[in-house]
From TrEMBL:
This is PA14 domain-containing protein. Residues 729-752 are annotated as: Disordered. It comes from Dictyostelium firmibasis. Residues 740-752 have a biased composition (Polar residues). Keywords: Glycoprotein, Membrane, Signal, Transmembrane, Transmembrane helix.
Length: 752
């Protein structure tokens, strides 16, 4: 009886090994768009090399570069210390060209031998789910995915003019002259960069094939079948790799067919590989298969033409309209007399700045040669108007006229007004004392309504009689004193009412001498003081600070000294990440931010305002707060986002599903949900133990279990197929999705 129980449990476990992974969620196929690089012996003589063929391990480094994401040779030498090294044994006679096995090199010259030129393509690699071993499989003994494509497409490819076929090849299109190998393209390499979440359910990866095969898991070499060789096999049990359940890892697959003898590939794995497709639709692609170098070139040398960033265009949706164009920023000119600009036909250029009419509207004219420190030198052309200058109005010099000066002096009707270039606004009496008869004075009537009546000559004969026979100073007028007939002369009026003149009278001559205000100073008619006159110092350069500084003289006059110091921009800016400069052509002070070049796509540099130095930190990628999305930074691709793959509590009987956060459960979580229908092994307590108690045979126990669990339909299916062995049990309709979406009447999902 004990032996029967053991046998029943063994059979039950054998059934479970076939059916426990069945789930309505497992797709029938696993299809991925992979990158293929067509090669040719003319461009890379590591292909079709007729040297020795050996399985050669240790050709590539054990760590996969997170940035390159393709293998690297351990050494660039073919022979080491006079001995035949791994490259020689692996028929890698030109190691420098290995980097083009799995990376694009379409820009190389068509007619240059051993340039490493390749032809990138993309194909769908589809693995089919095998229910018998619960694994995805691919098997082909004649694996030629790019026949008549790439370099072997006779309708589009032109054979290089200097190509000379080798003795082993029939022509450019055939890898070998042997009849059996004429039709196939044997020279290519395949790259698949994918991901998987470790479920800890006995994941394995099995491969068999020729030639080079390298598989990296978590960026560590796991399958090492390098060199030209017949079909070789290597299996990996992931439980030996120290992986953590529920953690997502990279799985990178590299395969090359390098010689026209055979091409076979077999893959079997129960690793649930998934992809983050780029906008070309390529699994973990970098966008180069549909946007190769030069694809976005708009023939404008003044734009930087780039393919869009990953994630900005939908899966497989890329078109040329998605190309990104940004304006070229040319380097700053070396000095202020040189301009930097971009020519659409040839790119960035420099040229001397022509100092001509750039400031004509501000009444400036060129003044000598350009100064490399301050730029063009201009002279204010309104200085000819001296103290009468009122500035520039649209290129025309405005001056102080009699109306302006009259307003400045209060418009006294007894004076006339004008502007003198040396003095500025001046006024003169309308009724002067010169040229009138002796013993008379000229009197102004401020209230006259007619200018003819403004001046009146009045007699001072009485005063003249008092001073008769007396000598009177020429700067005085005769006058009578308080005593009868006493002569008391009166001073002539010499003040012209202008504070900017020094009024004197010598030998009867009245002088109104302008005050000396030199340089950029001028006399203020309201105060009589020398004040600065900034327009005189203006050099027409927006990047200079134009100042007039007064220097007092001992005689009370002042000289104004012009200074035109170059403006120091950003002096009060505490943010040291701002780079300040002054550009006359762009309007003065300009600031640009310190640009911190990225060390990598996942190391972001930011400028620290307090120091102006770049600091680097890991790039933070956002999943938008969705628990069921994982965002991470890939050193090759940048930020990527993919669905969280949840492991189950019982991988035999349950599938892991992801539930996003809600208002009740904001954090989100992974759940384990029973398969529907539940596999036989998951019902042992309810079925097998009953059979044992009843003392039925092993076959009877299984039959009873199937009948109790699946009803008559399941039992009839088992009866019809029991002679085929246990492997056929995976096709039981109990373990397939119901055609009418009905639920197994014996199944109850306690998790829903």
């Amino acid at each position: 009886m004990k032996d029967k129980i053991i046998l029943i449990l063994i059979i039950a476990s054998m059934v479970s090994a076939v059916v426990y992974t069945q789930s309505v969620s497992i797709p029938e196929t696993l299809s991925m768009t992979v990158s293929v690089y067509d090669q040719h012996v003319f461009y890379n003589d590591n292909f079709e090399n007729q040297g020795p063929a050996f399985l050669t391990k240790g050709m590539v480094k054990s760590d996969l570069s997170k940035t390159l994401k393709f293998p690297e040779l351990v050494t660039m030498d073919v022979n080491l210390a006079g001995k035949k090294g791994t490259n020689y044994m692996g028929t890698m006679y030109n190691p420098q060209l290995f980097k083009y096995f799995f990376s694009e090199n379409v820009e190389a010259d068509n007619n240059t031998q051993n340039s490493g030129k390749n032809f990138p393509l993309k194909i769908n690699l589809t693995l089919t789910y095998n229910k018998d071993n619960a694994a995805y499989e691919f098997s082909s003994d004649q694996f030629f995915p790019i026949n008549n494509k790439g370099f072997n497409d006779k309708t589009t490819w032109n054979v290089p003019s200097n190509y000379k076929k080798s003795s082993s090849a029939a022509d450019w299109w055939s890898m070998s002259s042997s009849p059996g190998y004429l039709a196939n393209n044997y020279n290519y390499c395949i790259k698949l960069n994918s991901k998987f979440t470790y479920q800890a359910k006995g994941e394995i990866f099995k491969f068999k094939g020729d030639d080079d095969v390298w598989v990296f898991i978590n960026n560590k070499l796991a399958v090492d079948l390098g060199g030209l060789h017949l079909a070789e096999r290597q299996d990996i049990d992931l439980k030996t790799l120290s992986l953590t359940k529920g953690t997502t890892y990279d799985l990178d697959f590299f395969y090359c067919e390098r010689r026209a003898t055979a091409s076979s590939m077999q893959i079997s794995t129960n690793i649930e590989i998934f992809c983050v497709n780029d906008y070309c639709g390529v699994c973990n692609g970098d966008g180069t298969t549909c946007c190769p170098a030069g694809f976005c070139d708009d023939k404008n040398a003044c734009t930087i033409d780039k393919c869009p960033k990953l994630g900005t265009v939908g899966d497989g949706k890329f078109t040329k309209n998605d190309c990104v164009f940004t304006n070229v920023t040319c380097e700053k000119a070396p000095d202020q007399c040189t301009s930097s600009f971009c020519d659409p036909s040839s790119g960035c250029k420099t040229a001397p700045i022509v100092c001509d009419s750039g400031s004509a509207d501000k009444c400036f004219e060129v003044n000598g040669n350009c100064n490399v420190d301050t730029g063009c030198q201009y002279k204010y052309k309104c200085t000819d108007n001296g103290r009468c200058d009122l500035g520039c109005d649209g290129g025309t010099c405005k001056i102080k006229d009699e109306v302006y000066c009259g307003n400045e002096f209060g418009n006294d009707p007894c004076y006339t007004y004008k502007c003198d270039n040396e003095i500025g606004c001046i006024k003169a009496p309308k009724c002067p004392q010169e040229g009138i008869p002796d013993c008379s004075i000229h009197v102004c009537n401020a209230n006259a309504t007619n200018e003819v009546d403004r001046c009146e000559i009045q007699s001072i004969q009485t005063d003249c009689n008092c001073c008769k026979n007396q000598v009177i100073d020429g700067c005085q007028l005769p006058g009578c004193g308080p005593l009868n007939g006493e002569c008391v002369p009166k001073n002539k009026t010499i003040d012209d009412g202008n504070l900017c003149t020094i009024d004197t009278c010598e030998n009867g001559t009245i002088k109104n001498t302008p005050k000396v205000c030199g340089g950029c100073s001028q006399c203020d008619s309201k105060t009589g003081e020398c004040v600065i006159n900034p327009p005189v110092c203006d050099d027409g350069n927006i990047c200079t600070k134009d100042q007039c500084t007064l220097v007092k003289n001992l005689n009370g006059s002042a000289n104004g000294i012009c200074t035109n110091d170059f403006i120091q921009c950003g002096l009060n800016d505490t943010d040291k990440c701002n780079i300040w400069s002054c550009d006359p052509e762009k309007g003065g002070c300009q600031s640009t931010k310190v640009i911190c070049e990225e060390k990598s796509l996942c190391q972001v540099g930011t400028c620290k305002p307090s120091t102006g130095q770049c600091e680097y930190a890991p790039r933070v990628c956002s999943n938008g707060g969705a628990f069921c999305l994982i965002s991470e930074c890939d050193e090759r691709l940048g930020c990527i986002t993919y669905n969280r793959q949840c492991p189950s509590d019982d991988s035999r009987c349950q599938a892991g599903i992801c539930v996003n956060g809600t208002s009740d459960e904001p954090e989100g979580r992974c759940r384990s949900v029973d398969y529907d229908p539940l596999p036989f092994v998951c019902q042992t307590a309810a079925v097998v133990s009953t059979a044992v108690v009843a003392g039925v045979t092993v076959a009877g126990a299984i039959a009873l279990g199937i009948f109790l669990y699946g009803g008559k339909k399941g039992y009839d299916y088992w009866q019809d197929n029991k002679s085929k062995g246990l492997t056929g049990a995976s096709s039981n309709p109990l373990y397939k999705e119901s055609d009418n979406a009905g639920q197994n009447p014996f199944y109850n999902d306690n998790n829903l």
